[in-house]
Amino acid sequence: MRRNRTFFAIGEEPLGKIRGHDIELYLDLERPYPPMLRRPPYPESLKTSKQIEKNVNELLYMDVIRKIGHNEIVEVTTPVLITWHDGKSRLCGDLRELSNYTKADRYPIPRIPHSLDKLAKAKYITKRDCMKGFHKNGVKPNHMKLLRIICHMHIYEYTRLPFAIKKCTIPLPKDDEHNISRRNIRRLDCSIY
Q1: Would 192 be classed as within a structural domain?
Q2: Is the residue at 31 inside a domain?
Q3: How confident is the model at residue 112, as a pLDDT?
Q4: Residue 149 sits in which domain range?
Q5: How many domains does the chain have?
Q6: At 49, which CATH number?
Q7: Of 60, 99, 134, 161, which is most buried by a Cβ count within 10 Å?
Q8: Is residue 193 part of a domain?
Q9: Secondary structure of the chain in the HEC alphabet?
């Protein structure tokens, strides 16, 4: 854990982050983008509006989103939704339309049965910060403009990987690209899904 301490929330940082592997998003289309990628906010009830404010403030504090400046060009906006589970709310962008235009990664995440096979002989199994697990990966600064959300308060962009993105790329060093499965998987101490 000490070797990977930046992954965990320690001290002043309220949320850990995987360093050095920021996400990239590539679209299958050129500018100008279709109108479906720039949408206004959805109508909100008073209850939903208050929950959006609460969730936005929490994500700002955790450095998961940042406020967009008034002079920045905005080409992509996604309305926010509040999802409810057991009385708790979670803010997420309606990124379904954006996911239709993103290019798939050459190295997709492992299938669940393969991950469970790896855990079959494990001595210890633990879960850490599962609620905020998606927000562990950063997004490269020049790719954040595609992850903009809009609500009644303002326009924000994700600085970390949000929920609901189906296809994104985690860049690997060029010398490791072909040897990743042989060299690194044998020494795998944990499986993160």
Answers
A1: no
A2: yes
A3: 74
A4: 5-185
A5: 1
A6: 3.10.10.10
A7: 161
A8: no
A9: CCCCHHHCCCCCCCCCCEEEEEEECCECCCCCCCHHHECCCCCCCHHHHHHHHHHHHHHHHCCCEEECCCCCCCCCEEEEEEEEECCEEEEEECCHHHHHHECCCCCCCCCHHHHHHHHCCCCCCCCCCHHHHHHHEEECHHHHHHCEEECCCCEEEECECCCCCCCCECCCCHHHCCCHHHHHHCCCCCCCC
